[in-house]
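General statements about sequence and structure are easier to judge against a single worked case. When preparing material for the folding task, we compiled for one chain both its residues and its backbone structure tokens. The amino acid sequence and the backbone structure tokens for this protein are reproduced below:
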Amino acid sequence: MKQPINKVMSAKEAINRFVKDGDELIIGNYTLCTCVELVCEIIRQGQKNLTLYSQSGILDVEMLVEAGLVDRLITTYVMRSGGKDGGSAVERRIQNGSLELEDYTNFNYNARLVAGMHGFSFMQVFEGIIATDLFKKRGFMGEDKYRIIKCPYSGKDILTVPAANPDVCIVHVPRADKFGNAQYWGAMGSVAAAALASKRIIVSCEEIVEHDVIQSSPHNTIIPAFRTDAVVEIPWGAHPTEVVGYYNLDRFAYGMFQMAATSEEGLKKWIDEWVHKSKDRNGYMDHYTQTFGTNRLNRLKAKPYYSAPVNYGSAFTSSWDEEGKERYMGVTRQELETIMEERGLFYE
């Protein structure tokens, strides 16, 4: 049996190895448990000409766009602090023509990822969208944003979206093991589909746990080890967004970002202070506590609230007993093979 591979590395190494200029990059999280530190590391390294997928663009999308790394954006929502007359890197770059945008509904965006996750080339969606500008207005995808085809069964016209298979997904989860089995709980949305539709997956997590912990709660595993390319342990890696079971949304820090993002100058200063002047998340957190103290951070830490345990027990875990005999027929493996061979059922 092939031995599992230890995929633990730093954020710097993971981004350098797996995110390239011109990639289609998808942010797996949206609005909560956001992979903020992975986004920060991309900004530090400056991978450019990205096509960015994001179900809900909050500070993560604004940061990457302000840094000048994104040429094209596929999304359902962007925060746009200050509105059309305010700041917002996304709004400014749409207006000056340096950012191309393709806008979908949440359902249709997710349909693209589900199709990509399952290896389909397209997915049928509801026809009602045809009456809206989301269907009528086409950006860089042109005719490929939506296509109407004949159903091979009913002969009716059906509306479809193309599968999405981004080059790399960055995603933050509560915990993972060193092999890349990533566990997530809370509002799921498109998190699993975003990762599994992608060609490469970088997982950051609040903590790396022993494989036994993963095995004891398999229902929480959304990304299996064989699909994961890198595992990065980053406590507070989603700050200022929240991670269920670890810490709450930091409304103060989030509000500070939103105020900064209402102007180009303010956002540039924020990125310089909180991204470039901190070489990693430890530097970021040191700057936070030195500036605002530890009490503000400690108040965000989650109080324990555990779900009921699940009983995964069984009478035995193998069809073969301690003496090497099949439990129901009472024969050894060699005896079983002999019986099958005598009856013409055994093939080499």
Notes: The two ends are 20 Å apart (CA to CA). DSSP finds 13 helices and twelve strands in the chain. The CA atoms of residues 159 and 344 lie 53 Å apart.
